Amino acid sequence: MKAPVDYLLHLADNAVVLGQRDAEWCGHGPILEEDLALANVSLDLIGQARLLYQLAAARIGGDATEDKLAYFRDDTAFRNYTLLELPNHGPLVGYAASDRDYATTIMRNFLYSALMVLVWDALEKSADSELAAIAAKSLKEARYHLHHAADWVVKFGDGTEESHARAQAALEHLLPYTEEFWTPSAAEDAAVAAGAAVDVRTLRAAWDALVADTLAEATLKRPEVRGYVTEGKHGRHSEHLSYLLAEMQGLARAHPNGIW
Amino acid sequence: MYTQAMDIPDESGKKLAVVPGASSEQEAAFEARIDADGRIEPQDWMPEAYRKTLVRQISQHAHSEIVGMLPEGNWISRAPSLKRKAILIAKVQDEGGHGLYLYSAAETLGTSRDEMLAGLHSGKAKYSSIFNYPTLNWADVGVIGWLVDGAAIMNQIPLCRCSYGPYSRAMIRVCKEESFHQRQGYEALLVMMKGTDEQKAMVQDAVNRYWWKCLAMFGPPDADSAHSAQGMRWGIKRISNDDLRQKFIDATVPQAKVLGVTLPDPDLKWNEERQHYDYGQIDWQEFWNTVEGNGPCNKERLATRVKAHNDGEWVRQAALAHARKQQERATKEAA
Predict the structure, then answer these.
(1) CA pseudo-torsion sign A166, A169, A175, A176
(2) Is residue A28 within 8 Å of residue B304, measured between CB atoms?
(3) Does B70 touch chain A (CB under 8 A)?
(4) Which of A97, A120, A202, B277 could form a disulfide with A139 if both were Cys (CB 3.0 to 4.6 A apart)?
(5) CATH assignment of A5-254?
């Protein structure tokens, strides 16, 4: 049984959007080694996005290509988690500008990769063999991403007063967005029904445990979350995604007949 | 990427003429090793001026790699396809990796990365001037690969035989990656030249802006070069600026023809007698203006490096504090 295209796009959009955000650090990292590490994470994510878009394009048929899916769909067609499109800094409106904050970047990578090690692990057993193959490759990468991010979460939490405060603030800013992971979507339900995906809600306890372990080691306090639950995976995004896509898609759209 | 840096004196470079005394035996052993084309290793005795020249050269090279991440990094977020985005991120990451090996190679000479970075951030240490020019269209990414990395390779291949062991070994790996970048850059341009008229115009525009800057990358004419003679004697520099420049031009003209672009030099023509291409006058005034800090992007490039370093201070402090606390906890447990 094959996963529906909308589900593949959800996974691909997640990867490309976070890949784009992580790449913003290239040349600006806090230390050269981290510049290289973040570029690696970004490369893995863009690699995952390419495989998923290619699979989706093959299933859509016609003149669909990975780049048409990444560059010529509007923000409302994107199905990524809202968490991933947020800028690399604390809570500000879409057109505000601010310095990049490494704690925000690391905390986001931590929360997302803790989910993805579970998702890819389950998808490795997907009835959709092509998706299972992508999952097997992505699982290894997500494990590294989690290891890298969790390591820094602990360093920040345990490090200095400033790093602790920044990590705590990043956690408080980002954790509410993770509620979106656990809400149902039509694409996910269809993929689960086809035996091609895992019901992400069944992963919640394992995710909570992974997050709790690292936060405990980091001496960070998990805030209580309530209120609005974001809906990026349904195509209703924050103010930030259209800016991200305007930048990412601008050149390709200015030259729709260009070959690169 | 490495360029003319070795010929650009900085504060420490001014003191190079001084060769402090050493036992004649040590000096003779050093000279004999150099004469036999052997390698000097970190634990070997070396003249202080040799050490200083190498620290200056290798750290300028490392700085060039790190600053060089910025002009190409400028296009990562806007790369027009996912494949090109991945290639560009990997390429810029490679440049960062080169910076890392080179800082490590320089550290074997007893200067810490922090000291070298302080030199860069204060403006005392130089980096390659080519990175003080803006990247204005997507084709710049391809042209930097083809021409800038191409020029860098010309400079770097001889450094694989440099007399200082750690530097020569680092350069072997760097050269392999740079020549891959050069072919990737050229391939990206070949694809664009098969595309729309606008794409072809982008490529020509990028070549027009970068051609002369690349020729200047080989450094001042041999007659005006500050450090060439001593560098040659020490096996730190192997081929003169003008010879490398000529070699680059001779190799590049046929590539430009295949690509279908015009190199912006009306005096560029084959000289049957010399068996080389003749070329026009390089604007050395403009080159020195940029080297001295007054090019189009010097201030932006340096300020961006300084900002990244300053903004990252709390991250580095956190890592140090965590390591210290872990050690304390381990000691307490053991006791």
Answers:
(1) negative
(2) yes
(3) yes
(4) A120
(5) 1.20.1260.10
With beta carbons under 8 A apart, name residues in chain B contacting A23: 76-77, 85, 89
Got the DSSP string for chain A?
A: -PPPHHHHHHHHHHHHHHHHHHHTTTTT-SSHHHHHHHHHHHHHHHHHHHHHHHHHHHHH-TT--HHHHHHSS-GGG----HHHHS-SSSS--TT------HHHHHHHHHHHHHHHHHHHHHHTT-SSHHHHHHHHHHHHHHHHHHHHHHHHHHHHHHS-HHHHHHHHHHHHHHGGGGGGGGS--HHHHHHHHTTSS--GGGGHHHHHHHHHHHHHHTTPPPPP--S---BGGGTB--THHHHHHHHHHHHHHHSTT---
Amino acid at B179: S
DSSP string, B100-166: HHHHHHHHTTT--HHHHHHHHHTT-S---GGGGS---STHHHHHIIIIIHHHHHHHHGGGGG-SBHH
pLDDT at position B216: 95
- Per the listing, tokens 């932006």 go with B300
Smallest Cα–Cα separation from B1: which of B314, B214, B259, B205?
A: B214
To the nearest 10 degrees (0 to 180), the angle between helices A5-23 and A32-60 is 160
For residue A16, the chain B residues in CB contact (below 8 A) are 82
Rounded to whole angstroms, how far apart are CA atoms B127 and B119?
Answer: 11
At residue B11, the pLDDT reads: 45
Binary contact (B82, A258; C-beta < 8 A): no
In chain A, the residue whose alpha carbon lies closest to the alpha carbon of B303 is A28
ipTM: 0.97
Contacts of B17 (CB under 8 A, 6+ apart): B49
Q: For the residues A176-202, what does the mean pLDDT come to?
A: 95
Low-confidence ranges of chain B (pLDDT < 50): 1-19
Q: Compare CB distances from A160 to B73, B76, B314 and report the shortest one's residue.
A: B314
